[in-house]
Specification:
399 residues, alpha+beta, Peroxisomal Thiolase, Chain A, domain 1, 11-stranded mixed sheet, 5-stranded antiparallel sheet, 27 strands, globular
């Protein structure tokens, strides 16, 4: 019977209030990191991580290393990756051990939410679980999607039949379906959920906690259903839900694909994705990116240690590129950011803001983003998000 210490949510700034769109430099992992960091912002310990999505960027390989690096967690933590929607996330939540971070991520519409379990807080428990086969929408190993496209069948033989089989009272909230249908299936008039998949149940849970609403929360997907009973208790709600605005119009000039060097990828991974600098013993100077040093006599030194860098800073200088660059969408803005209190400056792209809108002296934070896709491999690094782009973030404590 888990307790929830905190819930974190994240919505990209692009799209509309009803339908968010992931940025060109965002994917399921960067969204998961944003929601996860919001949930663990208070510094509570994490011992296990569960990631649920139908949009994982790597299916033949694990996404765990990038996820843990972006979250700033121990690289040896146990990570479970589940392919699923709203029922899978609520299943993971209701059976989680204390100090487990459960993250649900969606790309259509885009959004992510995370919940951190604890020994105290908002109490939840399993209320129902129904597994039925009604494959209305399928995707095969090559990514081809087949949609049977019969809303009436899905409603009558899917959602309603599973709710009847679950033997639960009318749920307070239903996640995983369109807002209009959710209102007809639930007893409370909660605000429409921004997503329809793996993160939807956690968005609904955050809404219930904020309004101090107890009762049954149900997640459905085709004919599968999972329900949890939400009791009373305190939990922190941390929302990174940026104000929605249209995606900027940009030009794309096709270019030759730059192949990835996995050897170089592996060498740079820790410093780049964990946002760390090199530091030699006895020296206060930080090297970013980390590099070897030589003495005056030519002696090579390679024994630096990696130390975390601040994730906030000030724009030292900026430039916007308007000339089309093969393989990149233009225009885009580059900035040199002076990181707080360490004397390190970093060259990064701007994210979450229209091109040519960032000025010298602007404050902001460094956020994990997908900087390139090479040979089918997502390459991650950091981008600068201006402070004004995240003014709509909210932190609350729900009783």
């Amino acid at each position: 019977m888990p307790y929830l210490a905190s819930i974190g949510t994240y919505l990209p700034c692009w799209g509309t209030a009803q339908h968010r769109v992931a940025g060109d430099d965002e994917d399921a992992i960067t969204l998961a990191v944003e929601a996860g960091r919001a949930a663990i912002g208070s510094g509570a310990p994490v011992e296990y991580v569960v990631l649920v999505s139908r949009d994982l960027p790597l299916l033949e390989s694990s996404n765990a290393a990038v996820l843990l690096a972006g979250l700033g967690l121990d690289p040896e933590l146990e990570v479970t990756e589940r392919l699923g929607g709203a029922p899978a996330t609520l299943d993971a939540l209701s059976s989680a051990r204390p100090r487990t971070l459960i993250i649900g991520v969606d790309l259509e519409p885009a959004g992510a939410a995370a919940a951190l379990t604890s020994d105290r807080g908002l109490q939840v428990r399993t209320a129902a679980r129904v597994s039925r086969s009604l494959p209305v929408r399928t995707r095969n190993a090559t990514g081809i999607v087949n949609d049977y496209g019969d809303p009436r069948l899905l409603r009558e033989r899917g959602y309603l039949a599973s709710l009847a089989a679950a033997w639960v009272d009318i749920p307070v909230a239903v996640a995983g379906v369109e807002p209009a249908l959710a209102r007809t299936l639930s007893s409370e008039a909660l605000d429409p959920l921004p997503t329809l998949g793996a993160s939807a149940g956690l968005f609904a849970l955050a809404a219930m906690a904020e309004t101090e609403t107890s009762g049954t929360l149900v997640g459905v997907e085709q004919a599968s259903l999972s329900g949890i009973a939400v009791a009373t208790g305190k939990t922190e709600i941390h929302r990174r839900e940026l104000a929605a605005r249209p995606m900027p119009e940009r030009t794309y000039l096709p270019g030759s694909d730059i192949p990835i060097s996995l050897a170089a990828y592996a060498r740079a991974f820790e410093a780049k994705v964990r946002w760390e600098a090199g530091k030699y013993a006895g020296s206060e100077e930080l090297d970013f990116p980390p590099r070897y040093r030589t003495d005056d006599d030519g002696t090579l030194h390679t024994d630096y240690e990696l130390v975390p860098l601040p994730r906030t800073g000030t724009v030292y200088t900026e430039v916007t590129v308007h000339i089309p660059v093969p393989g990149l969408k233009t225009p885009y803005t580059l900035v040199i950011v002076e990181l707080d209190e360490v004397g390190v400056r970093a060259l990064v792209k701007v994210t979450g803001a229209e091109p040519d809108t960032v000025d010298i002296g602007d404050r902001g934070r460094l956020v994990l983003r997908r900087v390139a896709l090479r040979s089918g491999v997502p390459d991650y690094g950091y981008a600068f998000e201006p402070e004004r782009a995240s003014e709509s973030t909210q932190d609350t404590e729900a009783a």
